[in-house]
Amino acid sequence: MAEQEFKGFGGITLRAEVSGSPDDPAVLLLHGGGQTRQVWGDVAASLVTAGRQVINLDLRGHGTSEWPPDARYDLDAFVEDLKCVLAQLPSRPVIVAASLGGWIAAAAIGEDGGHLAAGLVLVDAPPEIDAAAAHKVSESLRKYAERTDTKKDWDPKFLKGMDLEAATRRVSAAAENIKLPVLFVRGALSELTPADAAGRYVKKFENAEFAEIREAGHMVAFDRSDLFNATLLDFLERRVPRFMPDYRSGSDARTLRDALGCFATGVTIVTAMSPKGEPVGLTANSFTSVSLDPPLLLVCIAKTSGSLKVIEEAEHFGVNVLHIGQQPVSNAFARPGEDRFAKTPWQRGQKNVPLIGGALVNFECSRHALHDGGDHVILVGKVERAKYEPRRDPLLYFKGKYRRLHFA
């Protein structure tokens, strides 16, 4: 067990207790407001025993993490902190987050952060909360903050930093964008989280489960850590298992496809002109630089593609590497039967090859070789001309989804 530092939003230092083997799947724990990472003690120990690495983080202004000099405790600051931490981790963790931590995690993951985590567990953290119970909790925290006889383990200024109404709207909207496996856990005796509100919130997620822990209130992971740990571990083993999927020759082809999908690629549109002077094209991510002398590249085209015959018979063809803003172009050229060039800017190249306008790179190639590649044709081209846009970022494809570059 060791303490690790992370750089958060605005350069603030965040600290976490890290335990377990770095080779095990990671779980990131986020506590609630007015708490510290110590509330997760039993949960962290249980996760490590079950073969998970645990990163138990103190939020800004809490525990051993830095108290920001500017007293920034709005939801934006917390969300950016989390994104910073996730970007510094070597793998995508499952995030287990309680109350305020749950709001932070839901907002971060739902607002274009799904690529940063493997799963999400929300512990008594719906955007709808009972007003009277919330006031009671707030008063309790305020009275604790005003005491002068105890050393504070969180910054009292935190209580004035959050716009609750805006935060709840934001968290509610973010849920509809989260595609990860989600578990929502509610304490059956919780006064802060009405059962019907929790149910409405869970329905907003695409892929969510709901669990209720008997004899537990709002501090469900603390009140009944035994039942909470059993529920959490069951979810993890079913939805984000520890074992690595294993493809053997002759077994499930989907496993092999998923394994191949672990290699991140760019996205290209392969184009050519038909003998009738009509442009054809298709989306392909099987693209490789082959040689500089002579200048060769290759693309792999499915034998079932309707554009294959034109492309493999053409003397010249184009490979257009797409940038991050051209996801709609990729989708259009991936769908059969669509008039792919009707709404896509393009122009003719020097060899009469149709080139996608504004692409990250346009390669104009002469046909060099064709090879059989199982259910694909391997088309090797000699690059006759290449022009590129150095100021744009590529559209990436990883594990069946579009991605973008992320710089820590």
From TrEMBL:
Keywords: Oxidoreductase. Gene3D superfamilies: alpha/beta hydrolase, Electron Transport, Fmn-binding Protein, Chain A. Pfam families: Abhydrolase_1 (PF00561), Flavin_Reduct (PF01613). It comes from the Bacteria. GO terms for molecular function: FMN binding; riboflavin reductase (NADPH) activity. Residues 260-404 form the Flavin reductase like domain. PANTHER family: FLAVIN REDUCTASE, FMN REDUCTASE (NADH) RUTF. This is Flavin reductase-like, FMN-binding protein. It comes from Hyphomonas oceanitis SCH89.
